[in-house]
Amino acid sequence: MPRIPKSAAFRELTGTKSEAAALPEYEQIPAGRPTCPKGLSPEARKLFRDLCKVLEQRTHLTLGDGHLIRLCCLVFERHQKALAHVAEQGEITTYTRLSSSGQPIEVVRRNLWMDVLERSEKTLFAMLRELGLSPQARKAVRKTAAPPAKPVNYLEQLNREYAEILAEEAAAGVAPEGTATPQQDEPADIDELLDTEVR
Length: 199
Fold this sequence. Notes:
This protein has 199 residues and is mainly alpha-helical.
């Protein structure tokens, strides 16, 4: 009969340590969004962005996942190409072969594009499972660490707050401190102006 493991509180009270091998502690990998590579078709580029969006929402996306997602998109293109050929030709097609006497004969065989289609499906499923997009593999994928906080620039923050205060005062019609309010000129007396011109 196996022994019941002792709790951490009991070992802390008795001053003993567990002899079981401790699980290694893994450092969380920082999160990151890889850039979409060149040379992909529009459908593959859309798949790349969709996979990045899903993995980013689950906090599983890192910069190193870009190459695996790119391969996944290439296999997706191959799958779409094979699927189009099978849809056009059918799963069973007629091939022309040469007999032993050199005469052409028609043979009904399985479409060769079916092999490409099935292999690409298996490869695509394996890649999606590696990315943690299957129900069973989802539990084994560890979450990424939160992105580091940007350092606060207090000078920019003060300038931004001061600009907001000036904008509010300008909207309210209040002159900012340290600026003289423009004085309106008093209407000039016409008699005084005529006297100065005569002199």
